[in-house]
Specification:
Elements lengths: L5 H12 L1 H5 L2 E9 L4 E8 L7 H15 L5 E6 L29
Parallel strand pairs: 2-3
Antiparallel strand pairs: 1-2
Organism: Halorubrum laminariae
Protein name: NifU family protein
InterPro entries: FSCA_dom_sf, NIF_FeS_clus_asmbl_NifU_C
Length: 108
């Protein structure tokens, strides 16, 4: 097993497995990852806030993290409310510039 923490491994996994988040202007950050309890908390922000399919993305993250990491048994995915883009709740996330709900939705 590597010396990387569970949080670091989950962050790396998010970059590799969920590039769609960044491609659509969203952000993600691993808030908690406890290998002893099996609990992981991921927060989505940017254009994920208020997105009509963010619940599908969250379901995919939950399912895939539990399948891909033996020690993960419980995943919580939080999405900031549509008024919270750019707030401190999404610092450190991936995806470059944070976008707002009023930006053009040309990703479909």
């Amino acid at each position: 097993m590597s010396d990387e923490s569970l949080a670091e491994r989950v962050e790396r996994w998010m970059v590799g497995q969920m590039p769609i988040i960044q491609m659509h202007g969203g952000t993600s950050v691993v808030r908690e990852a406890d290998a002893e309890t099996g609990e992981v908390v991921v927060e989505l922000g940017g254009t994920c806030s208020g997105c009509g399919i963010s619940n599908i993305t969250a379901d995919n993250i939950r399912r895939d993290l539990i399948m891909d990491f033996d020690e993960v048994t419980d995943v919580t995915v939080r999405t900031a409310s549509s008024g919270d883009q750019g707030a401190s709740t999404v610092e450190g996330g991936r995806g470059g510039e944070l976008q707002h709900e009023t930006d053009p939705a040309n990703h479909f």
